[in-house]
Amino acid sequence: MSDTITLEVLRYHPETDSEPHFQTYTVPYRDDWVVLDALNHIKDHLDATLSYRWSCHMAVCGSCGMMINGEPKLGCHAFLRDYKGSVIKIEPLDHFPIERDLVIVQDSFMEKLSSVKPYIIEDKPKPLEEGENLQTPGQLKVFKQYTQCINCLLCYAACPQTALNDSFVGPAALALAHRYNLDSRDCGKDQRAEVVASNEGIWECTFVGACSEVCPKHVDPAAAIQQTKLSASVDWFKALLLPGEKK
Amino acid sequence: MAKSSKPILWLPFAAGGMASALVTPALIMVTGLLVPLGLMHLSYEKMAAFAHNPIGKLILLGVVALPAWHAAHRMRTTAHDLGLGAGPGVKLVCYGSAWLMILLSVFALLMI
Amino acid sequence: MSRRPYVRQIERSWWLSRRRYFVYMMREATCLFIALYSALLTDGLLRLSQGPEAWDSYVAAISSTPGVLFQLVCLGFAAFHSVTWFAVTPKAMPLVVKGEPVPPKAIIGAHFALWAVVSLIVFIAAGI
Average pLDDT, stretch A169-198? Predict the structure, then answer.
């Protein structure tokens, strides 16, 4: 007699469904399986119509984000053994429109990400003869944790402000902006401020902190945003009180 | 999108958050426990003397105004969280109540 | 095949759906009691400006049973505010000393120590 576990998966096929609905599947229970293995079993053996994103199966690509019993998690990072004895409820990531089954529409995030200018911005072009940018290990340490984001969107699913305001730039994008603002090779903080320090940027955040709690790579976007609030406020007052000063 | 002027609301909010975190519990213990229990006495003479002093006035104002502003800004954002919106009415009630307390305190301190 | 993305609406009771959101809302709710206590202090300043009789009746009011009960509720929320505020200081103000980051517990501990010192100053100032 082999062990099994039950999954309730949210289904939505726009061509036939007016609304999403749950479908129940019973899959083999294996101690070393993750939720993604269970979904792959469903697709391979039970129901080929189930759609979901996945790739690396090792928590580095950020593709398989989903709600597992109401918590934003990577499907490859949630072990069946932690849910043994109960039904596992699987839904697409919160706060995003559902494209199909567990696939969400992430176009808004892609726009928000590029809007923060996530690349090194130099104040003047550097000729090749001057050589490469030099950076000490200490300078790298300052921003390294904010480079670890895999764009899995768990933070957006956890953040209530992204639900309350569609145009909130959001944790991952703001953490990435912080990564570049802290990089010693970058001079683009002011250019990014148009978006980052706007009402839809850092100022929409109320430091719920859920984003950092669910982040699988320990990026800590909440910290990034609070630090940006402080530096943006100082910059704002500096601009107000010392208007002529060059930054 | 343009740079927001939120810093003018947020820096005092942050200062008030730190001030209220450090000072308010002890103050409430004084007014809410030690004085009612008779373990401390806030006599008129002592309080008026403290409030006569310009530094005393500043301290008393800070201890009222900073937490009031912190609370006002937090109430405004919480109203939005609770689905009460972010309109001018909410802002008026929240910041207005803080301004009222600040102005009344300034008025009272100038009269002492 | 045509696309018809389905948008799920957030509920007004979203903050009741998970423990972490409820704790967040309780943290935010501390502001109501900080505001009410500030109102109580404002009233005190006004009564102080009106003379000894007005001040004495204020002290009697804050020493009354409802006055004390109200302030005890405020105290609970104020203390919760302090604890949650100090807990997030390492995130908002990370410190680096001689190239090494200061451990978060040290930053939080320093704030608690400051809290104790400031409280002592308040007690001494009120007690003199």
Answer: 97
